[in-house]
Specification:
Strand content: 25-35%
Order of helices and strands: EHHHHEEEEHEEEEEEE
Shape: globular
Number of domains: 1
Structural class: alpha+beta
Length: about 220
């Protein structure tokens, strides 16, 4: 059984006084969507997971429904998408599937949706190219090459990584955080923490690093 995690200093820096309520509603919305997906899969009687995957859009709809009445919220129309996103305190919430099990949390998160990658790229810079980290200027000094994005001073999105699968009515865990970079394939360098943590497997201030993903476990 997973456990809701109280608002951390990071969450309060993103959402202010409504941080705890944002977290609670995010978990509630995603939990309801998970039930829709898992029960759709079971009702289909099919072995492949298309029925479950086809319900993913309900996560966007339910996030909007649960959050749109909070102070500082706005509903965002996404170009070329059939769904909408919700923004709280200037932070657009972007949900995605992080893993299918707790044993398979990836070293780096990845957005597989072209639409969501395009949305994220407006505010999150791309990583520097490995062979182009430095340019030689006229002075002969090594200068770091500027990372580019089109977002200007816009706040970074909050990415919500969902750990779930078609066999379970319950979410296994949910993580959220900002990304430092995102590449053309949607691979992110991000700094997540639990908003819904695996029961008995999280402690305040306990961090682990797994080659590119830092997981903050908060109580």
């Amino acid at each position: 059984m997973s456990e809701f995690v109280a608002a951390s200093p990071w969450a309060r820096s993103q959402f202010g006084l409504v941080a705890s309520e944002v977290g609670r509603r995010v978990v509630q919305a995603l939990g309801e969507a998970q039930v829709i997906g898992s029960r759709t899969q079971k009702a289909s009687g099919l072995r492949h997971r298309y029925p479950y995957g086809s319900t993913w859009i309900s996560k966007f709809d339910l996030l909007v429904r649960h959050l749109e009445d909070l102070p500082g919220s706005a509903v965002v129309e996404v170009p070329k998408a059939v769904y909408r996103l919700v923004e709280i305190n200037g932070r657009i919430l972007i949900p995605f599937v992080l893993a299918r099990s707790l044993a398979e949390i990836p070293q780096r998160a990845r957005l597989t949706s072209d639409v969501l990658r395009a949305e994220a790229a407006t505010t999150v810079p791309r990583p520097p190219e490995p062979d182009a980290l430095f340019d030689l200027g006229d002075t002969g000094l090594s200068l770091p090459r500027q990372r580019e994005c089109s977002g200007g001073d816009k706040p970074s999105p909050v990415f919500i990584g969902v750990i779930c699968n078609a066999a379970n009515d319950d979410l296994l865990a949910v993580m959220w955080g900002n990304a430092d970079t995102i590449d053309s394939r949607g691979v992110m360098e991000w700094r997540p923490e639990y908003v819904l943590a695996p029961s008995g497997d999280h402690h305040q201030g306990d961090f682990r690093s797994a080659e590119g993903i830092n997981v903050a476990r908060s109580a």
